[in-house]
Amino acid sequence: MIERKKTRRIYVGDVSIGDGAPVRVQSMTKTDTRDVQSTVKEIRRLEKAGCEIVRVAVPDETAAKALGEIKKRIKIPLIADIHFNYKLALEAIVQGVDGLRINPGNIGAKWKVKEVVSAAKDRRIPIRIGVNAGSLPKDLVEKHGPTPQAMVEAAERHIEILEELDFHDIKVSLKASDVMKTVEAYRVFSSKYDYPLHVGITETGSVPEGVVKSSIGIGLLLLEGIGDTIRVSLTDSSVFEVNVAYEILRVVGLRNVGVEIISCPTCGRCEVNIKRMVRQVKKALKNIKEPIKVAVMGCSVNGPGEAKEADFGIAGGRAQGIVFAKGKVIKTVKETELVKALIEEIRKAIA
């Protein structure tokens, strides 16, 4: 069992983070925030997929003023991602966001920071300090290079500004596109501070490269007990990001949400179209949130035994196959009816 690092408790909206709360799944919209309809549509898809916190980019005043309408039409907490312009942060707070992603050291004079912090404190809105290896302060790069140490020192500078203003509702991220650089930065920071950590690998690319990088980096940290929220950053749909995040949490044993499908890789003994059957099962069960393990196997002789840990499964043979549960055969049906029979048994069990 993973022993998680003890961190402070904060809240983003009504979602608890840190201090033993479940590792939360977060994503970020890929729409233009100024387009309220498209942004709300994407967030609703994310909600359906199980996303618990969503972040949106706020590049200008029009986007900031759109946040209120977006917030009214969604169910999960909304975080405004802002760079440099303190007025956008103030407007986002007025519009009712649940959190800010803003680096206080990058928004100018101390009085500007003080205004933002004061407004956030009044509304009990947490601030995420987001350090990225690609945009570190010049002096730190000259001193250390774009290293984990430079990333940690950059975070410390931002934290000091907030702590001097007696603000402690802080979450921190330290991301790089290099997996081990990211992991080391989180390890160093986690050994020194108890602020909750948002974990991810940035700019990972598309599939499969991004999935591999994210799974290794986030997985390593979670297995060491580091991480309170996670985001899988992919050049792909935000819903897919959420699906991958939950699969990482499932594999490391921290959360088990939805259907887990295990299937054989197929071989010369296989007499059915496993790929097609897996696609059909996934599609039929995609909206189920109960933790169920489902097996799709190609060998009716060995399938039930090889997948005996599955709650339900099917194994195909020539012209017919079997439906099984916990390794025991329930029924034998025609090959063409295998998937349908499996889905019926699962839905019956859930009901």
UniProtKB/TrEMBL annotation:
Q: Which catalysed reactions does the entry list for this protein?
A: (2E)-4-hydroxy-3-methylbut-2-enyl diphosphate + oxidized [flavodoxin] + H2O + 2 H(+) = 2-C-methyl-D-erythritol 2,4-cyclic diphosphate + reduced [flavodoxin]
Alphabetized InterPro entries for the sequence: Dihydropteroate_synth-like_sf, IspG_bac, IspG_bac-typ, IspG_C, IspG_TIM, NO2/SO3_Rdtase_4Fe4S_sf
Binding-site residues for [4Fe-4S] cluster, renumbered to this chain: C264, C267, C299, E306
List the SUPFAM superfamilies hit by this protein, alphabetically.
Dihydropteroate synthetase-like, Nitrite and sulphite reductase 4Fe-4S domain-like
How the cofactor is bound: the record states:
Binds 1 [4Fe-4S] cluster.
The protein's annotated pathway: Isoprenoid biosynthesis; isopentenyl diphosphate biosynthesis via DXP pathway; isopentenyl diphosphate from 1-deoxy-D-xylulose 5-phosphate: step 5/6
Q: Identify a single GO molecular function assigned to this protein.
A: 4-hydroxy-3-methylbut-2-enyl-diphosphate synthase activity (flavodoxin)
What Enzyme Commission number(s) appear in the record? 1.17.7.3
Q: Name one GO biological process term.
A: isopentenyl diphosphate biosynthetic process, methylerythritol 4-phosphate pathway
Write down the NCBIfam families for this protein, in alphabetical order.
ispG_gcpE (TIGR00612), PRK00366.1 (NF001540)
The family line of this record is: Belongs to the IspG family.
Name used for this protein in its record = 4-hydroxy-3-methylbut-2-en-1-yl diphosphate synthase (flavodoxin)
